[in-house]
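I hope you will forgive my troubling you with a question about protein structure. The full record is reproduced below for your convenience:

——
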Amino acid sequence: MTTATTAEKVTEFLLWPGTKICNLLGIPPADDMGLIRSMFNMLVYLCVLLPVLWIIL
């Protein structure tokens, strides 16, 4: 059994939305070198962080 380092845990946490969306769509998350998962992550974080920035600024 391997133990995950703190960096690996943070990475898994940040990539979780894209991984979940890929799994729901039936796309392997590591397929296409993770570019599809990365796109979904950017869209999720854009929709979450942009309104927060608008409220703050």
